[in-house]
Design a protein that fits this description.
Helices cover about 30% and strands about 20% of the residues. It is of the alpha/beta class. The protein has an 8-stranded mixed beta sheet, sandwiched between helices. Strands 7-10 form a two-stranded parallel ribbon. The longest helix is centred in the N-terminal third of the chain and has 15 residues. It is globular. The N and C termini lie far apart (about 65 Å).
Length: about 325
Amino acid sequence: MHSLTSMLKFKRKHGTDSIKDFCSRFLHPTFGFPDKHGNYELVIGNNPKLCFAAHYDSVHNSGGMQKIQIKNDIVSLANDSDSNCLGADCATGIWLILEMIDAGIEGVYVVHAEEESGCIGSSKLVKDNPPWMDSLKAVISFDRKGKEDIITHQSSIRTCSDAFAISLDSILGLGMRPDPTGSFTDSNEYSQLISECTNISVGYDSQHTKSETQDLFFASALRDSLIAADWSKLVFERDPTVLDYYYDRHWGYPQRGSYRSSFDYWDDDGLYIPSKVVAEDTEEDDFLELVCSHPQAVALLLKDFYGNPYDLVDELYEYGANVTVTSRLA
C-alpha cells in the first residue's frame, strides 16, 4: 500500500531536488526510468483500451518538504507549514494509479511531466505517438477538484461524450455526473486522436492555494471503485475528428476560452444540447475569438470609441442583437 499522506509532504516544484526525491521514492520502483520528456509509462495487459493519467509536478513555489495535518479525514497544510499549496493536485492521481497498478488493473498508466507548465510532457509524448496509443479508446485523468465531476469538455471543446461519462459513472457508482466546464489537463493532449478523453474528481478542493484540502475518505472510496469497476461496460461514442463546443447558456460564447462553432443551447428542461456543426474559419470568427479571449480589453476599446454605452446599444440593434439594457444603463 502506498501512502498518500507521505506523498503530500513533498513540495514538487519542477526541477527541484525534492521532486527528484519524490520520483525516486514513489515512481521509479514501479515505472523504472522516465522517457526522454520526463514521463513515466507502464503498460499492463495486451493492447489495453484505457489510459489512466496523472502528473507529478505541482505549483509549489519552492522545493523541500512541508508539514500537513489531518482532521476528520481531511488533509490540509499545517498552520506552521511554509508552503503555498498542499499539492493534492496531482499527488492524489498518482496515488490512485499506483493502487490500480498494485491491483493488476489492465491499462496504460502514464504520470506526466510538467503539466502545470502547460502540459509539456503529455504534448511531447503524444507527438512521439508511442505504440500503445494505437489501441487506446479512452484517456482518464485523475486531476479534477471536487467529488462529482466527469469532465466532458476541456477549454470549451468536447473531449468526452456524455455517453462515456454516464457509463463511467455507472461502473464507479459514486454519483458523478457529466460536467462541461473543465479547463485542461494532460488528457486534453490526446483528444484529437483518442475517442474519449476525460478528467474525474478525486476529492481535492481549493487547489493551487494554501487552503487546498484532500478528502481521504473520498480518495479511498474512489480507489476501491476503480479497482472493482467492470471496465468492459464503458461506452465509446465520441469521434475525435469532429469538433464540438460548449457555449455559456447566458452569454452565448464559450465558457472557457474561445473557439469557432455553431452555438450550443439548452432545452426547456435545462438540459445541455451540444452543437455538432463547425463553421469554416472566417474573419468574423477571428473577431469573435478576440472578443471572447479579451472581453475586458474590448470593453475598454469600445468605451474609448463610443464614450456613451447607449450609442453602442443602438448600433448593436442594427446588427440584430436583442440587447437588454441593464439597470446601470437605464
